[in-house]
Design goal:
Blueprint (H helix, E strand, L loop, with lengths): L1 H10 L2 H44 L1
């Protein structure tokens, strides 16, 4: 709770506290989407590599 109180004291306006919070949530969502996308790409690339190796090994 202490950091939030410091932010409120520094800005003196609730709006200045809510805006960074929204920005933080958006950053979190964007980060989550990027991580999910990278995970999906890793799975797809890994599957393709496995198929390619399997075909070459035959």
């Amino acid at each position: 709770m202490r950091p939030i109180q410091l932010i409120v004291r520094a800005n003196g306006d609730a709006k200045d506290v809510i805006c960074p919070l929204g920005q933080l949530i958006l950053e979190g969502i964007r980060h989550y989407i990027i991580v999910w996308f990278l995970g999906e790409m890793t799975i797809i690339v890994g599957t393709w590599l496995a198929i390619t190796v399997w075909l070459v090994e035959r």
